[in-house]
Amino acid sequence: MSGVSVTKGENAGAASGDLVVLSNVNKHFGALHVLQDIDLTIARGEVVVVIGPSGSGKSTLCRTINRLETVDSGAITIDGKPLPQEGKELARLRADVGMVFQSFNLFAHKTVLENVMLGQVKVRKTDKKAAEEKARTLLDRVGVGSQADKYPAQLSGGQQQRVAIARALAMDPKVMLFDEPTSALDPEMINEVLEVMQQLARDGMTMVVVTHEMGFARSAANRVVFMADGKIVEEATPDQFFSSPRSDRAKDFLSKILHH
Amino acid sequence: MNVLLDHFPEFRDGFIGTVSITVVSTVIALVLGIVVAGFRVSPIPPLRFFGAAWVTLLRNTPLTLLFLVAMFIVPEILFPGMSAFVLGSLALGFYTSAFICEAVRSGINTVPLGQAEAARSIGMTFSQTLRMIVLPQATRTVLPPLSSILIALTKNSAIAGAFSVTELFGWQTLMSEQGYAIAWIFVWVAAAYLVITFTISGIFRLLERRMEVAR
């Protein structure tokens, strides 16, 4: 895994390769200051894993990147363009940002195949035939090709989440956001989803992954971002972070999750 | 007994009148109701305000008053020479649209937020999300209240009879004036209304069953 962390150093050096930049982002939920002066830069091809205790703001951070959550102050740019206001332009930008949710959120009234085709046909205006072909290829790639004509409710959680990943990939996103993609899964299904994500990471996809899966963070991340109480407390390579965390908050967090 | 046989052509015209005004106002109410429900959940504040104002105004105005406005004020200042049938259908359709809007909105609220978030995440616009993801899933929830609202609409159409629109209730007035036994007149009028309302609930039962299978 140390090889992975070396690549990270190179990526961070290439300033022109910055894909997602958050600068001085603040957000409140009422009195709660969920994001406090967040600065985060994600380079093209980089896999950033965000970890931290519940309520630390990591999911919110992930959702601000495609503006499912608005921010109170600060700026977010994707591929050099600042996030636009709600409307057609934002919709266009969201098409370039794949999102995978904790609760899958597959369209319940559409079949698996339709789920993966819908965005291509309605947003990208791809013709139906090409869209279906691509959808089937993607479904095969995530290992659920045989389920194409079923409805989401007929699939296991792990299968649904892999379909959700295929649905996001169908848009050819520049970056993929994963908001706790395995937290709603039975333990035995976690690995099938992580394997798909690992493959994506190897293929060079830019990824922001909010997760509690430390194994995935160790093996697939270029960089670990540790958040607590709305702040980024520590950023390091997985090796550095897991073997010798600098902050007390991270040490405390790791001691609780790694030894029991 | 022979009130029906003696005046069957008038009765038939009344029945057709009631069915026509019911169908036309239903179409108006459904289209407006769904559009205004979309306004009420829209991200654009002026549209939301318009939707709320529409519902508040139409839902809280007595229907008879709306008919008065439609029949006497609207032709005066806006559309002179419009037929009583069209004006009556508009009044009834507008009025009912407010109730349909709220039923549709309650349906929209039952669709998990994640569905809309997922749709927006793949780049669908608000109206695409509403049309392709949210409304289709809201339909099943909306059907039962919708059938009640449309049955109420059918019965409310009787008010149009008071404004010289040919419909069933007008036939009742006519027959009473000619001295037929009131009980029988009402039996036939009630039977005709039942035919319409049972048809509506039948159609909705069918739709509900089909929707159930689709999941």
TrEMBL record, chain A:
It catalyses: a polar amino acid(out) + ATP + H2O = a polar amino acid(in) + ADP + phosphate + H(+). Residues 20-254 form the ABC transporter domain. Coiled coil: none annotated. Its main location: membrane. The keyword ATP-binding applies. InterPro entries: AAA+_ATPase (IPR003593), ABC_ATPase_HisP-typ (IPR030679), ABC_transporter-like_ATP-bd (IPR003439), ABC_transporter-like_CS (IPR017871), MetN_ABC_transporter-like (IPR050086), P-loop_NTPase (IPR027417). Signal peptide: none annotated. It is a peripheral membrane protein. This is ABC-type polar-amino-acid transporter. Its EC number is 7.4.2.1. One of its GO terms (molecular function) is ATPase-coupled polar amino acid-transporter activity. The keyword Cell membrane applies.
Automatic annotation (TrEMBL), chain B:
It holds the Pfam family BPD_transp_1. It is found in: Cell membrane. GO terms for biological process: amino acid transport. It is a multi-pass membrane protein. Signal peptide: none annotated. Its main location: membrane. InterPro entries: AA_ABC_transptr_permease_3TM (IPR010065), ArtM/GltK/GlnP/TcyL/YhdX-like (IPR043429), MetI-like (IPR000515), MetI-like_sf (IPR035906). GO terms for molecular function: transmembrane transporter activity. Residues 15-204 form the ABC transmembrane type-1 domain. It comes from the Bacteria. GO terms for cellular component: ATP-binding cassette (ABC) transporter complex. Keywords: Amino-acid transport, Cell membrane, Membrane, Transmembrane, Transmembrane helix, Transport. The chain crosses the membrane at residues 15-37, 49-73, 79-100, 149-169, 181-207. Belongs to the binding-protein-dependent transport system permease family. HisMQ subfamily. This is Amino acid ABC transporter permease. It comes from Streptomyces purpureus.
